[in-house]
Amino acid sequence: MSNAEVPAADHGRASSTARPRGIGALLLSEFALLFRRRRTWALLSALAAIPVLLAVAVRLSGEGGGPSFVGEIAGNGLFTGFAAITVAVPLFLPLTIGVVAGDSTAGEASLGTLRYLLITPVGRIRLLLVKFAAAALFCLTAALTVMVVGILIGLALFPVGPVTLLSGTQVPVIDAIARALLIAVYVAVSLLGLSAIGLFISTLTDVPVGAMAATVVLSITSQILGSLSQLSAIHPYLFTTHWFGFGDLLRDPISWTSFGENALLQFGYVVVFGSLAMGRFVTRDILS
Amino acid sequence: MTTSGLAVETRGLTKRFGRHEAVSSLDLDVPTGSVFGFLGPNGSGKTTTIRMLLALAAPTAGTISVLGSEMPSRSADVLPRVGALVEGPGFYPFLSGEANLTRFDAAEPGTSSRTREGRVADALARVGLPAAARKKVGSYSLGMKQRLGIAVALLSPRDLIVLDEPTNGLDPQGTREVRALIRGLNADGTTVLVSSHLLAEIEQLCSHAAIMRTGRLVAQGGLDELRGTTAAFELETPDAERAVGVLARHGLAALVTDDVHVGDGRRVDAALPGDVLSEDLVSALVAADVRVRGVAVRRPSLEECFVELTGEGFDVER
Question: What is the reported pLDDT for A13?
Answer without folding.
Answer: 38
